[in-house]
Amino acid sequence: ATVPMVYGGRPGAAKTTCQGCEQRCTFTEEQNPQDMFTCIERTAMLAARVAKLVDLRKSENANRKIAIVIFNFPPNAGNIGSAAYLSVFESLHHVLVEMRQKGYTVDVPSTVDELREQILIGNAKQYGADANVHTLIPTSEHIQRERWLKEIEAQRGPAPGKQLSNGNGIFVLGKQFGNIFIAVQPSSGYEGDPMRLLFEKGFAPTHAFSAFYRYLKEGFEASAVLHFGTHGALEFMPGKQTGMSGGCWPDRMISTLPNFYLYASNNPSEGAIAKRRAGATLISYLTPPVTQAGLYAGLADLKSSIERWRALDPAADIQRRDLTILVQAQAAEIDLCPAQPLWETQDIHALEKRVSDLFNALLELEYTLIPHGLHVVGQVPNESERSGLLQAMLEVSLGQPPQDGVVKDLLGGLSSEQIVIKYPSLLENVEQEQLIVLLDKMIASNQLMLQETEVAGILKALDGHYIAPAAGGDVMRNPDVLPTGRNLHGFDPFRIPSVFAVQDGAKQAQKIVEKYMADGNSIPESIAIVLWGSDNLKSEGGQIGQALALMGALPRFDSYGRLAGATLIPLAELGRPRIDVVITLSGIFRDLMPLQIKLLAE
Predict the structure, then answer these.
(1) 540-568 exposure pattern, b = at least 16 Cβ within 10 A, e = fewer
(2) CA-CA distance, 147 to 144, in Å (whole number)?
């Protein structure tokens, strides 16, 4: 099995019952508390899920019925079919075309726009719905078939409820194309306070949400479900955080249905929630290529004015003063400096420093890396997109932008050794052997991006085959994310923070201290920091590295390279007082990183 699932354990004491288990397995006084036991309800669920995967693998493509679920969050805001970094409908179209070629029974709309229109518009106006209404579940049928009706009505009121209802029944939104049903997941029902769903015991999803997943299993009779993009609401339904039981809503909703999930490669922490709470097998997709942000509108005008100011002869006092007034006014208009006091009244050295600092701030904005468009599953990045991403990957690894021409020559076929000879300045911050390894990895990354692996991964999953694991995270820091189309896992807990994260965290910590002291303060005695699960996984523990650096500490690893604890940097070597760090942890960080919490505490 490729999904985590608890099916037994130790009772710990006599006369113990499983938490949340509807079967209430009871252990007698005669049983040894140290003996392992199996939970009847969980083993039955595990066996049923495996049986469904076996059925999936044995079935013919033409006979498979696949539900592809797209999301609607936040609801009622034109967001149906949105997902993090993903062009959903264009990607869907590629997947449907490939499914048809592989023998699935699917009627593929001729264009992406036609596909989008049939799902989002269709008969929506007729029903006053947000998207095409695929079917209406009568209230009487819902009452008869809803297994957990009393629990839902206790929280949400009488059936059919208020969401996706016309008073007589419950809408199921989406559109069926042959044996493929593209369905719109109902909203979670508490968008004003979404964490209430996750943390309030005894809470329940809406009638529409439960009816939706029941329809996929019993009405449409899906062979498998593919949740399309990062991310939906199923895995955030009420229930235990780990070790699902039959009393947890994600487990109730998905039941035995094989659950595959197309998930952004840079978000393994929330992906882990989908795995452990909804039994999902993840199939990763690449985040969009990055590009430099550039300047626009007032920023571009300001840069032109500064360049004109710097080109003037210092002796041209009147022209310089007039241009200074314009530069300050333009910068103040876009909140890059205060409008008062006027710069023109300052001496020449102070004025030159202010203009220089402003110009550097503009360059930082201009060269900031931002996502370029949205990723399309089934479409490999073009040369320009691959070039931008490789440029960013090299800059992160080298600590500075590589020379112009390096990436172009890599894409053009030069070997790592030839690059080192042609661009000797690359050796300023890294040894030759390490540089060659890095450049080889860039060449390999380029080759991997030339291959279409994501649709292939989806189809392999739908065949019931094993999806190989892959590290998740930011591809700019971790090229091992490639190729995508694999089953994401978060990290190696024994190797976070990485060597790079410790070094980068120290740099960021130094910037924080310098910025604080630049405002006329002495060195800070304490700094508060929030450690997020997602950010630390993407950066291999970069924020942990910041906290350690502020305290003047380093992680300690054993002879096998496994995290073993912490060690203090001597004050003479640190060169400053230690700074107390007040740390707040996110829930995901708390759940995923107990070793790192122990490290920080030590």
Answers:
(1) bbbbbbbbbbbbbbbbeeeeeeebbebee
(2) 8
User: Locate tokens 């997943």: which residue?
Assistant: 213
Q: Are 205 and 237 in contact (CB under 8 A)?
A: yes
Q: Which contiguous run of DSSP H or E holds residue 124?
A: helix 124-127
What's phi and psi for 526, nearest 5 deg?
A: -145, 150
Q: Which residues of 77-108 are buried (b: 16+ CB within 10 A; e: fewer)?
A: eeebbbbbbbbbbbbbbbbbebbbeeebbbeb
How far CA 432 is from CA of 392, 397, 417, in Å, comes to: 20, 14, 9
**What are the 10-residue block averages of pLDDT along the chain, 602 residues in total?**
61 49 53 70 89 95 98 72 92 97 96 96 92 96 95 91 92 97 86 58 87 97 96 88 85 95 90 90 88 70 80 71 82 82 73 81 72 86 87 82 87 90 84 88 92 96 93 83 89 82 91 92 94 84 95 89 89 94 91 90 90
User: Which of 260, 272, 233, 242 shows the shortest CA–CA distance to 473?
Assistant: 272
CA distance 533 to 269: 6
- Model pTM greater than 0.90? no
CA 56: distance to chain centroid? 28
- What totals of helices (H) and strands (E) does the chain contain, helices first? 24, 17
Rounded CA gap, 258 and 224, in Å? 5
Residues 291-311 have pLDDT tens digits of 666 667 677 788 888 877 777
Residue 133, helix vs strand vs coil? strand
Question: What is the rounded CA–CA span in Å between residue 150 and residue 164?
Answer: 19
DSSP-derived letter for residue 41 is: H
The string of DSSP letters for 520-580 reads TPPPPSEEEEEEPHHHHHHTTSHHHHHHHHHHTEEEEE-TTS-EEEEEEPPHHHH-S---E
Residue ranges of E strands in 102-235: 133-138, 169-177, 180-184, 224-228
Tokens of 71: 């999301």
* Burial of 525 per CB tally in 10 Å (0-12, 13-18, 19+): exposed
Residue 582 phi, psi (nearest 5): -90, 115
Cβ atoms 429, 399 nearer than 8 A: yes
Give the residue from 445, 377, 375 showing the smallest Cα distance to 410. 445
Helix axes 499-518, 542-551, angle to 10 degrees: 60
